[in-house]
Amino acid sequence: MSARVFCIMTIGGIVAAGAVAAEEMTFTMEEVKGADACQSVAGIAVDQQMLCSCTPAAMSGSVWGTPAYTSDSSVCAAALHAGAVPPEGGAIVVTGSAGQTSYTGTTNNGITTQNWAAYGTSFGVAPAQIKTTLAACGQIPSGADTHTCHCPAAGGVTGRVWGYGPYTADSDICSAARHAGYIDGDGGDVTVLRLQGLQRYLGGESNGINTSDWQAYSSSIVFDWNAP
Asked: How many Cα neighbours within 13 Å face the side chain of 16?
């Protein structure tokens, strides 16, 4: 597999560059959270990669093409269009590519891109992948008093949750973690603790996640806020 040039954008500018194999393009949570805001990539080279972060306010501006975008397109608007970042923002990897003879516009995720003729350079976007050696979260395993696992970025919050903290032990861990504010849209490692069950669980909305009411359940989960 061919190597690719990788640059991390930080407040001080591009601080690292080198040949990095494609399978190595993952980042620590600290790198993702510290990524600089995405800016223009008009001068991006073919196969050059940049880690940067999009805010909701940056998801505007003109975009040309699909899925290769002209390099003068708005990076964060293109990222939302491509589904590389949710509307609340997050970190992405921008990869430079060769110019196209034509670009076709489409509408996706509320963003409409435009047609264009030939352009010298292009870019593509993808979610920033976080390094982890932990298993993906689901529910706390049967019989376990503690459990540490990994929640992906925003897409991992689709499971059901009962309670407002504590939560029923059969609740989806990642969704409950987002509800509790233990993780944000970038995901991360999560440690849960099993506690005694409650006679009643009241649900509600928090951090964009809605949980449900439930009656008595045999055990509960909470999050270990002291975990490293």
From this structure: 12
What are the tokens at 14? Answer: 């591009």
User: How do residues 122-151 score in pLDDT, each as one tens digit?
Assistant: 999 999 987 767 888 999 999 999 999 989
pTM: 0.54
Any idea what the CATH number is for the domain that residue 164 is in?
2.170.130.20
User: Does the pLDDT value for residue 9 go beyond 50?
Assistant: no
Q: What residues make up the domain containing 176?
A: 146-223
Residue with tokens 């699909």: 66
Q: Is 15 exposed, middle or buried (0-12, 13-18, 19+ CB in 10 A)?
A: exposed
- Are 47 and 5 spatial neighbours (Cβ–Cβ below 8 Å)? yes
Q: How confident is the model at residue 24 (pLDDT cuts 50, 70, 90)?
A: very low
Q: Is the peptide bond before 166 cis (omega within 30 degrees of 0)?
A: yes
